[in-house]
């Protein structure tokens, strides 16, 4: 990650850290915040998609820093947090959009690799990131933003519903713990959107009836 501060155009701007920024709602949030003058610290595993996001942000007159990193790698995430602290001192908004959507499967036939990956991305990484990012949010009286997708108990959503539910349980606990002392924790529930993630779950769905992710990003941010 580039941390060169020479004539740094990000200085003086509000900083949004978006984990899972390369596509879907994460990318839409990045573009919406860019329009409001924020600097975006965009984190995702896919370098190509991050670069495409950066092109759109620059075309809109905004600025971004790219972190082609894996949220499940503790060393990479620790380095990210240290780099943010050194360069900006803190974070105004952390939007956690990183998610692993395991293929739908009967509960008795879930692949072991999908169990491990879903747990690592959806729960373990979230728990580790909260510990790393909390001091950065406190430094700027910032806000953490999570996104609920209640699938627990629905047929064929076993591992996704379980790990997403565990993530939300953790976020709700953090929200209750920090209600008086900060940082502020917000849990939003987006409308069904025409994203690749939803397309994997519902491939035959009429996508014209779904919410636009850019409009949904603007709605969620307006309610902050």
Descriptive tags:
single chain, 224 residues, alpha/beta, Rossmann fold, six-stranded parallel sheet, 7 helices, 6 strands, 14% strand, globular, SDR_fam
Distance between the termini: 29 Å
Structural class: alpha/beta
Give the number of DSSP strands. Answer: 6
Kindly state the percentage of residues in helix.
40-55%
What is the 3D form?
Answer: globular
H/E element string? EHEHEHEHEHEHH
Mean pLDDT: 95
Spatial order of strands in the largest sheet: 3-2-1-4-5-6
CATH architecture: 3-Layer(aba) Sandwich
Number of helices: 7
Radius of gyration based on Cα positions: 17 Å
Whole-number count of domains: 1
Poorly predicted sequence stretches spanning 5 or more consecutive residues: none
How large a portion of the residues is in β-strands, by DSSP E? 5-15%
The CATH superfamily appears as NAD(P)-binding Rossmann-like Domain
For the report, how would you describe the main beta sheet?
Answer: 6 strands, parallel
CATH topology: Rossmann fold
Protein name: Short-chain dehydrogenase/reductase SDR
GO molecular function: oxidoreductase activity
Keywords: Oxidoreductase
InterPro entries: NAD(P)-bd_dom_sf (IPR036291), SDR_fam (IPR002347)
Give a description of the structure.
The structure is a single chain. The model has no long low-confidence stretch (mean pLDDT 95). The chain has helices at residues 24-35, 47-59, 74-87, 112-139, 158-177, 196-201, 213-222; strands spanning 15-19, 39-44, 63-68, 93-96, 143-147, 184-188. By secondary structure, the protein is α/β, with parallel strands linked by helices. Helix 3 (74-87) runs parallel beside helix 4 (112-139). It has a single domain (15-222), classed as Rossmann fold.
